[in-house]
């Protein structure tokens, strides 16, 4: 397969970084390079990292800069090929048979075929970005099925034959690493680990996503979030929680609350687990006073 050197004018990782920034996503060098290579080489992009670091948002931003529809397959325990590929509309088929009487009717036409995310991507590879979200939640049987799909981007429909993509679709897989993925799946992808952004970049993200938040506030919130992430919490705050906490605290501050009080009253936006809140209760006030100062 020839290498596609340019994707809609994006001819380098730096150009992709700028395009992602225009789509409200600030990417690090590692992610921009991995995403560029996946697009240029026509390979799936596998993003791993803790929940809340921006893996799904990266896929959304990629679909935005490519001008393509994002087709999302949310994985879960017990997901099967029918949920990922296609299903036949049996009620409509039966109705068509009854209405046809003795006449012939093709009940396996397109009007009876209900596309699921993977078939949608095969049918329109140039107009979609397929996001296979949280693949680590699926079981090994589905992962093996997915491996076959990614090998040649084709599926077999017994009543219709084999359907193949006219070109390699753009595919992004995400994993929270709750279990190890099969090595064969990793080999077919361009891999990138996404960690929490450094404080400066996270403050930039806050100000980009929440324009009403001042830089000083963004810096304070990021400092507080990083303190929280250093604790053994069940659900440490992700980047989305950082943005929301900054917005919530700013709103309360504008209504007259001091910064420590605003941060404390909005803590439910950052910590969303009662055990985590109870664990931090003895030190949260002192921490927030220090950060606010």
- Major beta-sheet overview: 5 strands, parallel
Number of domain modules? 2
Q: Look at the structure and name the CATH superfamily of the largest domain.
A: P-loop containing nucleotide triphosphate hydrolases
Q: Supply the CATH class of the largest domain.
A: Alpha Beta
Q: In percent, how much strand structure appears in the residues? A: 5-15%
Alpha-carbon distance between the two ends: 58 Å
Q: Compute the gyration radius: what is it?
A: 23 Å
- Tell me, what's the shape? elongated
Strand order within the widest sheet? 2-5-8-1-9
Low-confidence stretches: 1-6
**Architecture (CATH level 2) name of the largest domain:** 3-Layer(aba) Sandwich
Characterization of the model:
- This protein is of the alpha/beta class.
- The chain has 15 helices and nine strands.
- The chain has helices at 13-22, 29-41, 55-66, 81-84, 90-100, 117-123, 140-152, 183-187, 199-209, 215-229, 239-254, 259-265, 267-270, 274-280, 284-292; strands at residues 45-48, 69-74, 86-88, 113-115, 128-133, 154-157, 161-164, 170-175, 190-193.
- It has a five-stranded parallel sheet, sandwiched between helices. The chain has a two-stranded antiparallel ribbon with strand order 3-4. A two-stranded antiparallel ribbon has the order 6-7.
- Helix 10 (215-229) runs antiparallel to helix 15.
